[in-house]
Amino acid sequence: MKPIFSWTWVLPDGMDAAVLLLFCFAGAVSMLLLLVQRHHRAILPGLIHVAGGILAALSADLITLLVAWEILTFSAFFLLLQSRTGEARRAASLYLVVQIIAAALYFVAALLHFNETGTLRTGGLAAEGLVPAAQPFMALAVLIKTAGIPFHFWLVRAYPVAALPITPLLSAFTTKVGVVTAARLVRFSPGGVPLFAWAGALTALVAVVLALRQHQVRRLLSYHLISQVGYMTAAVGMAGMTVDTAMVGTATRAGLFHLVTHTLYKALLFMVAAEAARSFVAPGGGPQEELPLMGGLARKRPILCVLGVIGAAAISGVPFTSGYASKELLKHAVGGGAPGLLLQLASVGTGLSFLKFLWMIFWAPAKSPITLPSRTRRAICLVPAFLVAVATVLIGLRPTLVPGIDSWSGFSGPSLGAALLPLGGSLLLWVRFRARLVAQGRPVSLPAGAGPDPARVMFRLATEQISRQGSRLAGALKAWHRWGPQSQLLLALATVVLLGFLVATL
Fold first, then answer.
1. Which domain holds residue 147?
2. What does 219-242 look like in DSSP terms, one character per residue?
3. C-alpha radius of gyration, the chain, whole number
4. pLDDT per position as a tens digit, 24-45
5. pTM of the entire structure?
6. How many domains does the chain have?
7. Does residue 453 fall inside a structural domain?
8. Strand, helix or coil at 506?
9. Helix (H, G, I), strand (E, B), or coil: what is residue 337?
10. Boundaries of each NADH:quinone oxidoreductase/Mrp antiporter transmembrane domain copy (predicted)?
11. Are 332 and 278 in contact (CB under 8 A)?
12. pLDDT digits (tens, 9 = 90+) for 419-451
């Protein structure tokens, strides 16, 4: 009798081994950060969160991977509650609801796959992914898990309100496990159109545009996290265009390599942002996270400035950084079609955004009082960021250190020249629009006298319509809540029965 699934696993190799090592390293550094920042209450849920990520990397069947998803969900819920604010509680509740919806879609996909194949094991799915009937459900579950546009709202609500030492931990696992799931299971290209790759590329570009409008430092970084995950899903989505194992391996290797590099430099940027915020005093007391009210920190904290430059250079794809290495593989995986063009435009916006990030924190005139702890305390607090920065620099200089990257030829003249083009575009846009980008509370807008933009008018009208429909839905949900637990349980059971009927008839 063929086993349905197996709770055992073997140590992975190649890029899967790189992901496992990354999760172990990110977990260790995150725990060190919590200890250094004396945030001891978060250590237990933090360890559980790390365990969920490691379990996902080791999982060999759909059930184990789903269990890892849920471990991450509930541990993140308790991590978000560490802030003990009303906004954090609301963000944690939204996080929990959205992640449970994603898990329900995952479960339906698993049932459809089992109904057709009789197994839940993921071995041998490297090229084919799940059965075609399960693909739409799994693709939607992954888009929610990875905060793809328009399902990004849960992330930008949650990460900016988490306790400062917790955000790097949250950024390292949930969305990345979604990418790992996509690399193993999603091959969604109906009619030969790489819709999943398109979704990733559009997410990368739209999230960058939204990031440029942000003036709160962790909101800016959160939108860039969404954008960079879009790069990964764009690469992984190209695997659905073929059943050739070698070509599928190239696409998934590129996506997972960018997962490794991004997790490191994004954690570094969140750590730098947290240390910078603690160096300023907000009007009401506490850390200052508003970019227009920061500035002047380069002279006071030069080491923090260097760490920020390393992270910003990596996410912008500057040559000889880890971000350049993974984006070089991404270019080959995605190709020169429309998704590739969208990613190039996103790269220009990323470079522009991090020029703004560095300028407003470190080099602009200081606009808030700067308070510095003792030299010893500053050095201790920078140890986790320093460890991540070292890993980022080493991978940038020698990408073959990452398991699965057996050879490297990305330092050729044409490759370096192609990487400098979007960076040059970022620099030119910064020179032209710097005043608007750094203006407090005023996003980039049309030149004076240009008249209303029809696209913006249509977008505003559509947003108002969505808001009205959302208010109606909220009213319906409140009415449902007033029905009481018996009616809610009855509705939940009816939903499960309906899903089971649909699965049985498909």
1. 15-441
2. HHHHHHHHHHHHHHHHHHHGGGG-
3. 23
4. 999 999 999 999 999 999 999 9
5. 0.84
6. 1
7. no
8. coil
9. coil
10. 59-350
11. no
12. 999 999 999 999 999 988 887 554 443 334 434
